[in-house]
Each structure stands twice: as C-alpha cells, then as structure tokens.
Design goal:
The complex is a heterodimer of chains A (306) and B (254). Chain A contains twelve helices and 14 strands. Chain A is an alpha/beta fold and 306 residues long. Chain A has two domains: 231 residues, Glutaconate Coenzyme A-transferase; 51 residues, no CATH class. In chain A, strands 1, 2, 3, 5, 7, 11, 12, 13 and 14 form a nine-stranded mixed beta sheet that branches. In chain A, β2, α2 and β3 form a beta-alpha-beta unit. Chain B has a single domain, classed as Glutaconate Coenzyme A-transferase (3-Layer(aba) Sandwich), CATH 3.40.1080. Chain B is built from eight helices and 15 strands. A six-stranded mixed beta sheet of chain B has the order 5-10-12-13-14-15. The two termini of chain B are 18 Å apart. The chains are: A alpha/beta (306), B alpha/beta (254). Chains A and B meet through β6, α4, β7, α5 and α7 of A and α3, α4, β9 and α5 of B.
Amino acid sequence: MQRDPKLVDLDEAMALAVGALRDRPDLCLGGLFKQSRPVALVRAVLAAGAKGLNLYSSPGAGYDVDLMIAADAVDAVFIPGVTLENRLCPNFRAAVESQRITAHALDALSVVGGLMASANGVPFQPIAALKASDVLKHNPLISEFECPITGDTLHAARAVRPRVTFLHAQEADRWGNIRHLSTMVYADQLMARASDLVIVSVDRIVEDDVVLDDPRRVTIPSHYVDAVVHIPYGAHPTASFPLYSMDEEHIDAYADLGDAARKGDGAGLTDYLAQHVTGPADQQAYLDKIGGTKRLQDLEQEAAEL
Amino acid sequence: MSDFSPLEQMTVVMARDLKDRELGAAGAAALVPMAAIALARELHAPNLSIGGEMFFNPYPRRLYPSMLDDRALGRCEGSETFIELFGHSHHGLDFFFHSGLQHDRFGNINLHFVGGTLHEPKMRGPGAANLSYCHTSTRFYICPTVHNDRNFVEKVDFVTIPGHLEGPESKRAAGLMNEGPRFVITPRAVMDFDPDTLEMRLKSVHSGNSVQDVLDHTGFALNVPEGVGQTPPPSEDELGLLRNKIDPTGELRH
C-alpha cells in the first residue's frame, strides 16, 4: 500500500470545502489582519458560489472578510475586530448598518478560548479576565458560571468548532506537514486542532527531507490537515512573511471601491469582483491582473528588507 | 530643536511615564505607543520588555502603523501565538494603550458603533480584539491621534473598553481593581483623572494650543484645575533619538 498525499489541486479542495459548508456553514480563516490570510482559497470558495456563511477568524480580520461580505456570501460575523487598520472595512460597515449581516460583539478571549476548548475536546474554556464591558452583555459565545474551585463568577467560552478552516502558510510537504516561516503563527495551530476540515494553501512545496531534517520547524503536523494546495502568492493582497509583504495599494484601492459602493455607486466594486474573484481562470490569471511579476517583485523586496 | 510634531509630543509624554523593568505592549493601532516604548528603552528603561501580544522585544528598522505585523517587529527575540495570548490576558501587563471612536468623561472607550444600537447601528466601527488588558493590566493610556468634540463625548454609546465606568463606586461594584486609564494623551493636550471622582480633567496643553482650544474641541465640560500649564516639550535628547534612531522615516511627522 502507498501513503496518500494530501496535496490536491484547488478544484479538489473546493469540492471538499463546499460540501462541508453545505453541511454546516461555519468557516474559519487563519492569519491575522493583513498577514497570511488564505485569500486565494477565499476567492475560490466565493467563485464556487458560497452563501450564508458564519465567519470565524483569529481575533483580527479585514480585507478577506470584507470581500466575502461584498460578494454576498456572509450571514454572520463572529470576529472581535474587523478593520483594515488604517481605515474601516467598507462593506462590513455598510452591511451591518443596513442589517444585511449580523456582526456579533465579541472579544479575543471568547474566540480563542472557544477554539482552545474545541482543540482540547472539552465543552468550554473558563475565562476570568472579562469585566464591565458592554460586549459581555451581547457576546453569544460566553455564559456566566460559578467556579467550582473558588466560587467566583467566571465566563465559560463555549467550544467553537468550525466546519471548515482555511489557512495560508509558506511551506508544506506533499503529506500536509505545514511550516510557517513568518515570525508569528497567529491562531493557525489552534484552528487546525479545533476544526472538522482543514485546508491549507502554501506558497511552495518542499521535499520530504526538508521536513524530516527539522521537525520542530513543522508548525502544524499533517495529522491535523485534510488538504494542502500549492498556490504561489496565495495570501495576496495580504502578506506571507518572510516571502512577500502586504499589497497596501491594492487593499486601499479596493477599499475606495467599497466606500463608493457604500455611498451608492457600486459599479466599481461589482467590476472588481468580476475581475478578481469570478473572472480569473486560475491563480496565474489573478496574478497577471494585480500587476504580475513586477508588482510581486516589489512586495518580495519589501519583505526581504525587513 | 524647537520644532516638533504633535505626535512627537505625545510620544515623549508617554515614554516618560514608562518605568524600567516593566512589561507592556500596544494593540493594532500602535504607531505612537511603539515609538514611546522604544524611546523609554533608549533613555531610562533599558530593561523594559515589550511583550504580551505574541512577541517579545522587537527591533524594527522604522515605525509602522500597526504593532501586530512582521514589518513592525523587524527582528525580535521571541514569538508566541494566540494560545499564549490567553495567559497574558489573564496575568495582565504593566501597561497597555487604547484608543477608540469615542472616549468619555470617565475614560470609557467605544469601538463598536456610534448612534442606534449594536445590531442597528448608524455607524459601525471595527470592534476590538482584546478587552482583557483594560483591567488585567496595571494601568493603560488612552492615546487617540485626533481630539475633537466627536471623539470626546459626555457618554460613550457603547462601552467596549471600560475605563473608570461612572466613578469609584461603579468601578468597585464591577470588580475593576486596577488603576485603569492613567493619562489621556492627544495631539492637543494631556488629561488625567481626579482621584476622588475619577472624572477626566486637563493636565497640560501642548505647545501651539490654548486651554480654550482644548475646551472647544472637547464634547463635554472638561474640568480645568488651577495651574494647568504647558506640556514639557521634547528635549533635544528625546527628539534626537526619535528622529535618528526610532523614527528615521518620519512617520510621527507626516
């Protein structure tokens, strides 16, 4: 018998994801803000017509969540902070203000605690560090309980079990062993352990020996991974450090279109989605669209200079 | 050097209040806090550790708008994940920095919405990732980079980050045992909190602003104690370090 590789092509990965999300539409996204977001996988699931999603993430997200809302794929957002950092997320904001989606008021500990509970196989994670915020009155992921040890009133963060998690990392082998080369690994390891189905895009595939020579460098062992897809620049326009930096200009131009749509002129945003999400036949066509080799070299150069 | 920017003034005010051997960090919007921490480490706090936000002791080549970003870390001594962030959130730090869409008389901060309700907001903001550091940390600083009558209001529409709530009694009742917000540092002035009432009051005004300017740009009747003076401006040492070492690209002067 031969061992089955977990390296699949994008179509196979999307067939897995779409089937699972039809079963339960809870999708979780790795990375943080403008770093290591699985944007190519997000574009693919949007192109496949995903609808009615409940979105989870590490506690900070921006462009990709906003894009999914722009594509009308989202029902509810369970992410504490949704922002482009230098400006607000236009489609997130517009959709909440017009009540097309529900954005829950949450905090990092209830999401991370919920993922920890799921990863650890227990119904909840206790939290003692939340007091006096109005977020606590609205947060659907937590319940108060009396601590059986101290008698204090604590919060229980209920286990969060995403049906599907998308991650992006720099490297993997064909068996699905994942290597983050970035300084931070965000909540990616936790999400991999907390989710039913885990699909990871990577910028490059490495030989088996690269993994075997340095097992401590493996951030997520293949045991936790269902499928790996080789997608060069798969995080664009977010960063995949240390390989390439975030494309701030692209994200800013997108946000301008989103703001125009929010104020009533949606033509530019509709065209953006057609050109970048549903239009490109494959990743290479997308990369040509966003400025091709020249643009990517600039982003690589910025990352190399840090 | 008599010419300096409002953000440089904010930076030195914060840096002077950070102590050697403390542990602290800032959240996502961290341009000025990062500069302040770096300046304190250069001047009087060489053993101050930056940590609690998934990394320890970064050495960036320049300042960036965010702290939670490999660019802003440059090289750093260690990295962690959200699993460890859970522990830091419970243990708390010595100091942290916050700012929001609205700040009120008692130093409460709103990052969720302005007008309407949470699920029917007139204007929806970003929300906030980490709420715990507002009361598990020993103290925090409020440091918005704008100061006007829209972001300084009598009462916030939603308490994302609790400050002093409605004063000492409410704070005790809610179990907030830490100092909470110590200073409010804006491009116009420094505010602190009356120890008896925990209401915000003017402490000093930055060069180029009058007391009246600050009052005109604050959306509630700010208390002005006697003897409010000018904020001590950056020294030549402070400005030299900022411009030559910490902020060579002039992010604080844009």
